[in-house]
Amino acid sequence: MKKKLLGIVFGASLVLAACGGGGEESTETSSGGVDPEKIVNNKCTSCHGGNLEGGMGPALNKIGADLNKDQILEVIQNGKGQMPAGLIEGEEAEAVAEWLANKK
């Protein structure tokens, strides 16, 4: 019973942490484009660490050395392991995938 309850609590906390918390902060730059760093800070650092050094999720600070933009985008869109699908979508997902692909 305790394991089941612990699993539910852990799962709920993972989902809540992945949501990025708080109010909706604009993810656009002053010129109207998408700011991938701001998106990552809002949506990814709770699991991947403040400097993307890893935490509950794997390190992303050098992910571009292992995965290209399309591979990263696939993980963002479809999820992988503990990461749920669709945390970031559309133009924002494309921008984040490109930004992460340049981290080598």
Which features does this protein show?
single chain; 104 residues; mainly alpha; globular
What do you see in this structure?
The protein is mainly alpha-helical. It has helices at 2-18, 36-43, 45-48, 69-78, 90-101. Helix 4 (69-78) crosses helix 5.
The end-to-end distance, rounded to whole angstroms, is 44 Å
The description of the largest β-sheet is: none
If you average the pLDDT, what whole number results? 83
Counting helices, strands and paired strands, the structural category is mainly alpha
- Total number of helical segments? 5
Number of strands: 0
In what range is the share of β-strand residues?
A: under 5%
Fraction in helix? 40-55%
Query: What does the radius of gyration come to?
Result: 14 Å
Helix-strand pattern: HHHHH
Using the alpha-carbon principal axes, give the shape. Answer: globular
Low-confidence stretches: 9-17, 19-23
Indicate the topology.
Elements: H1 2-18, H2 36-43, H3 45-48, H4 69-78, H5 90-101
Question: Quick summary of this structure?
Answer:
This protein has about 100 residues and is mostly helical. About 50% of the residues lie in helices and about 0% in strands. It has helices at about 1-20, 35-45, 45-50, 70-80, 90-100.
